[in-house]
Amino acid sequence: MNRQEFQVEITLMNKPAARDPVGETIQKDLLAKKGYDMVFNVRSGQFLSINLKATDENEAKKIVEKMCNDLRIFNPVTQNLTILKVSKS
Amino acid sequence: MNRQEFQVEITLMNKPAARDPVGETIQKDLLAKKGYDMVFNVRSGQFLSINLKATDENEAKKIVEKMCNDLRIFNPVTQNLTILKVSKS
Amino acid sequence: MTRVNLNGEEVDVELTKWEFEKVKELLGREPNLTEIGMASVMWSEHCSYKSSRPKLKMFEDAEANYDYVLAGPGQDAGVIDIGDGYCLAFRIESHNHPSAIEPYHGAATGIGGIIRDILCMGVRPIALLDPLRFGSLKDNPHSQWLFKYVVKGIADYGNCTGIPTIGGEVEFDESFESNCLVNVACIGLGSIEDFKHAPSRAYNPGDYVILMGGSTGRDGIHGVTFASRTLTEMSEADRPAVQIGDPFTKKLIIEATLEAVKTGYVRGLKDLGGGGLTCATSELTGDGNTGAKVDLRKVFTREPGMNSYEIMLSESQERMTFIVKPEGLETVLDVFRKFEMNFAVIGRTDDSKILKVFDEKNLVVNIPSKALSESPTFKREEKKPDYLDDLLTQKTPKSSLGLDEIIYRLVASENICSKEWVYRQYDHEVGIRSVVKCGEGDSGVLRIIGTNKFIAASVGVNSKHCFLDPYEGAKGGLVEICGNIIANGAKPMAMVNCCNFGNPEIPESFWYFSQAVEGMNNFCREMRIPIVGGNVSFYNEDDVKKTAIKATPIIMIVGVIEGEDKIITLPFKKAGNDLFLIGETKAELGGSEYHSLIYNLQGGIPPKVNDKKAKATWDFLFDLYENDLVKANHDVNKGGFIITIAEMCFNNNLGAELKLKGCYDENLRDDEFLFSESVGRFIIETDPKDYKIIIKKAEKFGADIKKIGVLIPKPEINIKGLKLKELNLNIKQLKNLYDSTIPNLMEI
Amino acid sequence: MTVKLAVIQFAGSNCDLDTIHVLNNVVDGIEADLVWHNLFKESKYDGVILPGGFAFGDYLRAGIIAAHSPAIDEARVMLDDGRPVIGFCNGFQILTEAQFLPGALLRNDSLKFICKWVNLKVENNTTALSNKMNIRDVLAIPIAHAEGRYYTDNLKELEENNQIVFRYSTENGELTKEANPNGSLENIAGVCNLEQNCVGFMPHPERASEAILSPKRTTHGILFFNSIVEFIKRRIS
Ligand SMILES: Nc1ncnc2c1ncn2[C@@H]1O[C@H](COP(=O)(O)OP(=O)(O)O)[C@@H](O)[C@H]1O
Ligand SMILES: [Mg+2]
Q1: Which contiguous run of DSSP H or E holds residue C747?
Q2: What's the DSSP call for residue C127?
Q3: Does domain C570-748 have CATH number 3.60.21.10?
Q4: Lowest-confidence segment of A22-26, B17-21, C241-245, D229-233 by average pLDDT
Q5: pLDDT averaged over chain D?
Q6: Does the annotation mark C95 as catalytic?
Q7: Which residue among C303, C338, C350, C501 sits deepest, i.e. has the most Cβ atoms within 10 Å of its Cβ?
Q8: Distance from C-alpha of C170 to C-alpha of C34, rounded to nearest angstrom
Q9: In the annotation, is C105 catalytic?
Q10: Residue C45, H or E segment
Q11: How many domains does chain D have?
Q12: Which residue in D39, D136, D23, D170 sits closest to D86, CA to CA?
C-alpha cells in the first residue's frame, strides 16, 4: 500500500445561534469607514490546513473527518465543520 | 452597470517562514498524542467569507483585497492573504 | 553597509570599514561570513551600545556603592536585596521598531524578551509594566490601529504567561505617529539563593551547554540591525520578518527554567534575544572568562538546510541557554522532559577562552570569547537644537474659554483621561499579589506572600517636558515616578531606565540623550537611588516628517512598603477631612497638557526640579506616614493640581470645597496656578485634628505646604479665592468625560 | 478531618499556584497537592480542581486540548463516583470541552480580554461549589478571561434541572445587560452536572478569598472552598 502526502483544508465556523462577533465587528467597521457599503455580510471562522499521509484522497478526507469528530476539533454545540478541499501536496 | 451579489472566501495565515504556534500545538499536543501520527503538519489561519455587491467577479476580488489592506484586516508583514474562492451568491 | 574585499570577493557587510579592520585584527586573519555576521550583530548599536556607552559610564557603580544592589548595569537585569531573604530583579526594554510595523506581534515579543531577561536571573517574573507612546487617536486610523494591537499583543502574551501587568502609562503626541514607543518592564521575585545559583556567565570549564525551548528558524535574522537604524533606512523588503510570539511555550520555559534552577545543577543561564546564539554563547564565555566548543548541527532547526550563518544569527523566540554541571545533566534534562520541552546539548565549555563553533566536523567560527563581547565605541557629537530658544520664550495666548470649560476639556484629553480601556484587557491580578491595582493608585503595589512587605513600581516620564529641556525633563521624570510610589507609601529603592531617542549620529538628537542621562545621573546620586540597569533605543524618527520623536527617557522605580497599614491610596476617604497641597507651584506651563490641548502650543517654560525641595517633601511625607497622618495621597502631574483633585474625588462620591486665597504666589495667573505642571507636588487628605502637627512637621523639614480646603459629602468641587471668579465643577460630569474618551475614540 | 484535593497543573495553567496557596494557607480543612497533568492519580484524592490559566495556550479553542489530557480520564472516574470535580475559568472551559458540563464558552462579545470585579448571584445552593451560600446571595469576585461567553442550545433543560448555579448580576442582584460582562446567555456564569458534584464557573474565587486583595475587603471566595469541603464531608458521612 503506497502512502502519499495530502493536504486537507477545513473551516470551523460558529453556528448562527452562537453568533459571530468577529464577523459582525468587521462588518461594522466596514460600514463605519464608509466606502465599503457594498459589503453586506461578513462571517468569520477558523481555518486549518492539515498535511497528512494517506493512501488516497478519500482516505485522507475520512481520517480528517474522524479526527475532527473524535477529538472535537470543532465543538458541535457551537460550530460547523466544512471540508473545503482535499489535494495532493 | 449591473451589480450582483458575490461571495468571496479568504484566508489569512502567517507567512510560511513565520511560526504558527497554534498549528504546531494542535499537531504536537493533540493529534500526535491521540494517535493521529499520519498528520505531520498543521497550519492555522483565519477564514472570512464576505458577501458583497460588485459588477463582476474580478471587481469583487479587487474590493476584498483593497479592503483587507486598507482596514488592516491583515498585516502583510507577517501574514499572507489568500483568496480561496469568488462565486456568485 | 560597507563594501569590503573578503578573500578576494567583494561583499557588503553590516560593519563600518574601521570595524571590519578591527575584526581582522582581533582574529589575525580574514574572517569568514559567519564571523562577520556575528561581529555585526554583536557590534550593532542595539547589542553593543556603541554610541551610548561612553555616556552611560557616568552612572555610578551601583553594585559597589549600594550594599543592597546585587546586580547592576551590564547584567540582564538589575537585582536588589529587599530583605527577608528575597531579591527583586527588574529591567525595562524597548520594542519600538517591530511594534511600529507589526503592533500585535511586535509588542507581544517585546514582552517575551523582557520576561526572558528576568528569568535569566533565576527568579520568577511576577509583574509587567508598559509605558507606551502613540500619535493622537483623534481621526487617525493608523494610531488607533497601533494602539489597539499593541495593547492586545501585550495582553495576550502577558495574560497567557500568567504574569500580571500591574501598571504602565500612555502618552499621545504627534511625534510618535509613525514611530510609536513600546517599552516593557518586568519584575522578578525570588530568593537570594536562586539568584546566586544562575549567573549569566559560564565560569567553569567542562560544563554542558544546552539549548532549550523553541526551534531555530530563519526568522528575525538581523533583527538587531533593524533596531539600530531608522524605519525608513530599511525598505519593506529589508525588514526582517517580525517574530511571532508564542506565550504558551514561554510559560513552559518559565516553569521548566525555574524548576531546573531549583535542582542546583544549573551554573549559568542566558536567554536568546537579539543576536541569538551568537550573543548568548559569546557573552556567556566572554564574561565568564572561558571558552566553548559548540556543534551547530545539534541545534534543532525549524527549516531544513539552514547554514551556519543562519543558525548563529537567528533570533527565533522562546529559547534559553543553560550551562549545566556535568553531574547534573540528566537531572536537568529530566525537568525539560517533564515539560515536554525541546532541548539539545550543543557543546561544552572549556578553558581555551575561544569560542569554536563546528558545523559537524568543520570549524566554522573560531573567535576569542571576549573579542565580540567587548565592542568598540564611538564618541558622538552633541549640539543643542536651535529651535529651543524660541520655544522656551513662547507665552500663553489669551483664551476665550472659561476656566471651568478648560478643566472639562483637560480631563477628557487623551493624555489625562482614564486608561481603563487598556488595563481591563490585562490580567492584572493573576499571581494574587496585586494589592493596589491598575487605576487604584499612582503605582502598582504587590504583596510578598509570607511577609508583611510590599513592593511598589511605577514607570513613565513626560515627553513634552523632555522635548523642551531633556536635563530637567529627565529629573522631573524621576521626581514624578518616585512621587508615584511615594504617594502609595513606598520608599524608592532602585531605578532602571529606557532611553528612547532619535538618530545618535545627528548631533541634536544625541544632545537630547546626553542631557537626559546627565539629569538622571545627577538626581539619582543626589537622592541616593541606585541605577541598576537600562536600555537604549536610538533611531526613533518620524519617517514622514523627518524629525526625531520627542525625547523619552522612560524611568522605572521600584520601592518597598514595610507593612500593610503603611499603604496609602489615592481616593478621598471622608467628608470633613482637610486637603493640603504640598510643594511649590510655579509659572511652569511649558510642555503642559494645558498649552498643548487648548492652544496647540509646544513651548513655554517647562518645570524645573529643585533637588533640595524634592528631598524635603519626601522626608516630610515619610514622617507623616510614620505617624499615620495621611488618609489619601496623589502626586500632581499632567493637567496640574486641579485635575489631581478631581481624580481623587472620582471613587467615593465625595467633593471638595477649595479656598485658594493666599495659597499661591500672587504673581501667578489663575491658569498658571491651576494648570502648571511644576513637579514634586502632592495632594494629601488628613484629619483636621492633626492640622497643627502637620504644619509643624512641614516647617521642620522645610517642605512647602498649604491647606487648600476640605472634603464635602457632595460630588462637586467649589473653588473660591481665584483672581477671576468662583468655579463650580460637577464630579459626575468630569468622571464621565474622564472615562469615555478612549472608548469613544476606539469603539465607534 | 481535612479533605484532600488535587489541583491539576496543565501545561499553561497559571492560577495553579494561586489556588494552592488559598487552599493550603487561607481556608481551613483542606490539604491540597499540585499535580502535573500527566501524573495525576485520582485514587489519592477526595476531589479535584482544574485551575485557571491558558492550558496549551488555549490554542484552537480554550480548554479543548487539555480536555484530552490523561488527567481528564482520571477526573472522569471521580465524576462518576460523585466526588467533586471543579473548574474555575480555564478549568470551566476544560470541563465543558470534556463534556463533563453542558454548553460552551465562546469569545467575549467585546472580543477583548476582561479583567474586573463582578457580582455573582447564587441560583442553586446545593452543589459542590455553592452549598455554603444562600439562594440570591450576591458575591463579589473577579473575572479575567477572553472566552467566557456561556452558550448552550439547551437552555430549557438546564433551567428545569436546576443546573444554572451562578449568574452575573448587579450589586442588588438584578440580572441586567450591564451586569453581564461578556455576553453570556441569560447572564450565566456557572453551571453544574445533574449530580451537582461537577461545577464550573468563570470567576476566580482564589483571588477573592483574602481581604487585602478585594476592593471592598470581602472574602466571598472562601465560601466556594468551604462548600467543597462540606460536600465531601456530607458525601462521606
Ligand atoms: N499602559 C498601561 N498599562 C497598564 N496600566 C496603565 C497603563 N496606562 C495607565 N495605566 C494605569 O492607569 C492608572 C493611571 O495612570 P496615569 O494616569 O499614567 O497615572 P498618574 O496619575 O500617575 O499619571 C495607573 O494605575 C496606571 O498604572
Ligand atoms: Mg501619579
Answers
A1: helix C731-747
A2: E
A3: no
A4: C241-245
A5: 97
A6: yes
A7: C501
A8: 41
A9: no
A10: helix C45-48
A11: 1
A12: D23
Cβ of residue B63 closer than 8 Å to a chain A Cβ: yes
Q: Which domains does chain A have, with CATH numbers?
A: 4-88 (3.30.1280.10)
List, for residues D168-188, the tens digit of each pLDDT value: 999 999 999 999 999 999 999
CA–centroid distance, D51 to ligand 2, in Å, is 35
| Helix, strand, coil % over all residues of chain A, rounded to 5 | 35, 40, 25
What is the pLDDT at residue C41?
83
Of B30, B34, B40, the CB nearest to A52: B40
∠ CA C540-C546-C549 to the nearest 5 degrees? 35
**How far is residue B76's CA from residue C239's CA, in Å, rounded to a whole number?**
12
The amino acid at residue C160 is C
Which amino acid would we find at residue C41? V
Q: How far is D155 from chain C (nearest CA, A)?
A: 30
Residues, beta carbon < 5 Å, ion ligand 2: C 442, 484, 635
What are C621-625's contacts with CB under 8 Å, separation 24+? C621/C486, C621/C582, C621/C682, C621/C684, C622/C486, C622/C491, C623/C697, C623/C700, C623/C701, C624/C684, C624/C686, C624/C694, C624/C697, C625/C489, C625/C566, C625/C568
Joined together, the cell numbers standing for residue D7 give: 489541583
Write out residues in chain C with pLDDT < 50, as ranges: none
C640 in Cβ contact with C672 (< 8 Å) = no
Per-residue cell: C459: 514607570
Nearest alpha-carbon partner for C80 in C95, C65, C93: C65
For C262-281, what is each residue's pLDDT tens digit? 999 999 999 998 788 888 89
Residue D47 domain boundaries: 3-236
For chain D, the C-alpha Rg in angstroms (whole number) is: 16
Q: Where do we find the cell 506581534? A: C105
Contact C94, C181 (CB under 8 A): yes
Question: Which H or E run contains C705?
Answer: strand C705-712
In chain C, where the domains are located: 570-748
DSSP 8-state assignment for residue C557 = E
Q: Quote the cell numbers at residue C347.
A: 557543546
Gap between the Cα atoms of C678 and D43, Å rounded: 66
pLDDT of residue C346: 95
| Predicted pLDDT of residue C2 | 78
Angle made by CA atoms B61, B67, B69, in degrees to the nearest 5: 105
- B31 residue type, one letter: L
Residue the block writes with cell 473527518: A65
Q: What is the torsion angle, in degrees rounded to the nearest 10, for the CA atoms of residue C351, residue C356, residue C358 and residue C362? A: -110
- To the nearest 10°, the Cα dihedral for C638, C641, C642, C648? 90
Cell 497554534 belongs to: B22
Is residue C220 a contact partner of residue C214, using CB atoms and an 8 Å limit? no
Please tell me the pTM assigned to this model. Answer: 0.95
Q: Which are the contacts of B63, defined by CB distance < 8 A and separation ≥ 6?
A: A36, A38, A39, B52, B54
Q: What are the Cα distances from residue D206, in Å, to C155, D72, D164? A: 21, 22, 21
DSSP strands (E only) in C486-590: 491-500, 531-537, 541-542, 547-548, 552-562, 578-582
Residue type, A75: N
ipTM of the complex: 0.95
Cβ of B47 under 8 Å from any chain A Cβ?
A: yes
